[in-house]
Each structure stands twice: as C-alpha cells, then as structure tokens.
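Quick one: co-fold with S-adenosylmethionine.
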Amino acid sequence: MAEYVLDKYDRPMKDLRISVIDQCNFRCTYCMPKEIFGDDYSFMPESELLSFDEIVRLVEIFARFGTEKVRLTGGEPLMRKNIDELIYRIKQINGIKDVAITTNAVFLVRQAEKLKQAGLDRVNISLDAIEDDVFKETNGRGIKTKPVLRGIEAARDAGLPIKINMVVKKGMNESQILPMARYFKETGDTLRFIEFMDVGNHNGWNLDAVVSKKDIVQQINEEMPVEPVDPNYFGEVADRYRYKDGAGEIGIISSVTEAFCSSCTRVRLSADGKLFTCLFASEGYDIREMLRTDCSNEQIISYLIKIWTKRDDQYSIDRAKGKPVDKKIEMSYIGG
Ligand code: SAM
Ligand code: SF4
Ligand code: SF4
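Sure, here it is.
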C-alpha cells in the first residue's frame, strides 16, 4: 500500500514526468529556438543520461509514495534507443496504472505498434498548425505536417488513445486555432490548446504573445458551439469543453491566465537525473549522484520526503502577482 507524502499545500506526488533525452529533431521556436540550439549545440552524452535500470529503480521508489502515472518526455522521447523496453519495465511496477508519452510523432510511424505492445497506455502528440506554411516555421526545421499526421495515423492504427497538443503563440500560429479545431473535430481526436508559457530563458516570452483561454474558447464557440465539462480527476490540467453537436471535445491548458498550482501533483526528472518540483524551478536536486554513489533506497526515500514536504512551489500564481524569477530551466531539458 502506497504511503502518500504531502507538500506544504497538501499536494501528493502522483504524476511523475521523466525526460529520457534532451535531443530533438525539431527546433520549435517557443521551446528550442534554432538560434540557441544550433548545429554545434552540445547535448548530453549518453553516459549523463539516466540508464533504464536507474529510471526503473526510481519509479519503483516513487510508486511507494502513491505515484500512479508516468509520462515519458524529452527532448524527443522517441529518439531514445529502445524506449519500448523502458515502457515495458515501468508497466510491470506495482502501483503504476498509466504510462504515457509526449512526442512530436514523427517517429511513431516506425514505433507505434511496438510501443503499444510494450504496454503504452496513451500518447500526446504536439502539432501547432495544420497548414504547412505555418508549421514549417513553428518547428524551426521546415518540416511539413505530413510526417506528423502519418504518425497520428500510426498511433490510431495501433489502438493508442491520442490527444493533440497545440501551443498557441500570438504572431506565430493563432491563425491556426480554427483550422486545427475543424480538422480534429472531424477526426474525433481531442485537441488541447496550451497557452504559450515563459519556460526557459530563450523563447522571448512576454505576456502580449499569450493568446488567453478566454479568447481561444470564444473563437471556437462562435463557429462551433461548446460547453464546459467537469474535470475527470483532481489535478487535471486541461479545462474541458464539449461540442454541443456531440462531435467530441477540446481542452485548454491555461497555465498563464488561470494558474492551477493548487492542484499540481507533478514531479519531474530531467534526463540526467535532476528532480524538479516545478516547471519553473531554477535548480533541481541531484538524484543521479545518489544512484551512482551506492546510496540505499532508504537514503533516497528520506531525501525525497525531505524535498517534497518542504515543496511550496506555485510559480504561476506568483507570476500573476508579478513576482520575478531570475533563471529558469529549459523546457527541452525538463520535458514539459
Ligand atoms: N518533443 C515532445 C513534444 O514536443 O511533444 C516532448 C517534449 S516537449 C518539451 C513537451 C510539451 O511541451 C509539448 O507539448 C510542447 O508543445 C510543450 N511546450 C514546449 N515549450 C512550451 C512553451 N514555451 N509553452 C507551452 N508549452 C510548451
Ligand atoms: Fe522538440 Fe518538443 Fe521542444 Fe518541439 S516542443 S523543440 S518537438 S522538445
Ligand atoms: Fe505546478 Fe509549478 Fe506549474 Fe504551478 S507553476 S502548476 S507548481 S509546475
């Protein structure tokens, strides 16, 4: 039976996000702008990455504290070799009910079936535009939508439940809100709009570039009427809306205009084994060092309890109050 550990605001550690690699085949302007992440950018050598054995050992420990969901992310998680093996091993851990992945989908054509066989429960696919001209700009690599759409199809054919994530940034892709909604209303996949966030230090964020949840819902509602739906569970980050004609749902992740820190149960591990208790933290706790210096599980557990019980993060609430943070961790490093 899991023992829950609560932070200063009584939030349990339920949802573990693991970045398995910091590299990516895309250079999305809001995440890894190519001016910073150029061809000579030095990503982590393999020896720096947590090994599968190390990840599995940590997930077993987290499961003892009530962690039920694991999401693999990156960088681009499908660029990590043999990721299906890791999924299979995590699925065997007592208490882990749900294993998901967040991906740009390009490698799903080759991998979807294998991932499903390994036990993957769900996949979130990032796609920021349905028109090639816009998408080629947002992904920073001139990639058309076709490889992503084929990846979505492969996931569907493999029987994986899919959600599509679209980051909306003013001046980048707000023209795509309605075309994306129309397209995915037709396919029946849930489309979730994410407000452009001030993660990292290089994406040139400012409040004026955020298209608010209110604006997004209003635009959609004018053409395709929607109504709000209750959350599925405590801590669900997307506010859900259903089409009144019964043709499925959309979601909005309003991390900037309506902070949801009070129900934030997420803990994050970077690819090199640093633990972050908030997406906007400046520094992580080095867990890899403990794994590689032969600390016992009991020592790791007491360290985690110490970290979580003193957690009082609520960055999005503080941002709304105008409180600044000097240096933040990059999204490609921590994984979203
Ligand atoms: N490469 C994978 C992908 O794009 O799905 C996984 C890693 S990516 C960092 C995880 C998620 O973070 C994606 O849905 C991406 O759109 C989102 N993201 C990255 N930068 C963001 C930003 N500045 N604001 C909001 N969401 C962001
Ligand atoms: Fe790569 Fe995902 Fe970041 Fe885009 S959002 S650059 S696909 S890690
Ligand atoms: Fe959680 Fe930090 Fe995001 Fe608030 S700002 S929801 S505490 S990750």
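If it helps, The longest strand covers residues 162-168.
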